[in-house]
Amino acid sequence: MSPPAPRPRRTLRAPRPRRTSHAPRPRLTPSVLVAVLTAVFAALLHALTPFPAAAAAADTAAGAAPGGAPADWAARPGGGAGDRDARPYVYLEGTPGTALQDRLAVTNSGRAPLTVRLRGDGRAGAWARFADDTVTVPPRTRAEVPLALTVPPAATPGDASGELVATGRGAEVRVPVRVRIGGPTLAALTVEDVEIAGGAIRYALVNRGNALLRPRLAVRVEGVFGTLLDRPERPLPLELAPGRRVERTEPWPDAPALDAVTVRLRVAAEGGARDQAEASETYVPVAPAAGGGLLLGGLAALASRAYRKRRPGRGTPRPPEPPEPPEAGAQPVTGASHRGPDPDHRPLAQAGARP
Predict the structure, then answer these.
(1) How many CB atoms lie within 10 A of CB 159?
(2) How confident is the model at residue 242 (pLDDT cuts 50, 70, 90)?
């Protein structure tokens, strides 16, 4: 009898973990991400921005108002009792060589004495002289400082401008000064150095007369197929003093890519001052021009090559000439080389032998 077959052993396996259902995780969509980033940025901006009261307190402590003007003192033309009666600038009239009188008012609204330094700036400001260059104003007090403005004897009739400058407590106040000099006035204005640079038109304005000018400008651009730009006359934001030169730029973002244009500038001012100038420019695209050059170069090379093929060169061998036919009665010559007949083997008729 055969022994019984051994039974297979059972292996113990670890119990499988039970599956538990979990709640689905929320996905971070682009809209949710944008909302979160916006909230974080707003919180940071709110934390970094100072409160208006704190900013105003900091400016007051530094001695300046939020707008940049002094917080506790002011300077303006004298003579007015309040802000409503204050003049916007010092205005004087006189002939060359005369001395003109006026006053500059300095108001100290602070609790401590104020010391300011006074000086003139600009053409007309340099003619002014103060009774005292340094003035101390008590607290909550207004002081008027006399000044004398002497027009030079050689001054040109017309308008002159400048400024009176007061400096104190780390701040500076500038009061405009305008002087009308008696005599014949001449209003003359020129526009110069007109050029087209990229998407802008550059030019210069020069006051050639002796009057203060407020110029007006008109721009017109003509192309091959018509008008490209037409801007009517408008005042420019500047005052041109006599002898002053100002360089300006007129934007032109819609310049053409392919055209030949002419720019015309017309300027005018009060008193009959008027002038105009123009400039020309040709616009050619860079890429098409390069492609056209390559195309012309390729056509020239092909034409030169075809011409060389049709015309034989100097080194080309010519075809051999056919041999001359033998004379009547002459015997054919045998063994002649390619260089020609040998004189020793000439026919008898040619050697002079008689038959």
Answers:
(1) 21
(2) confident
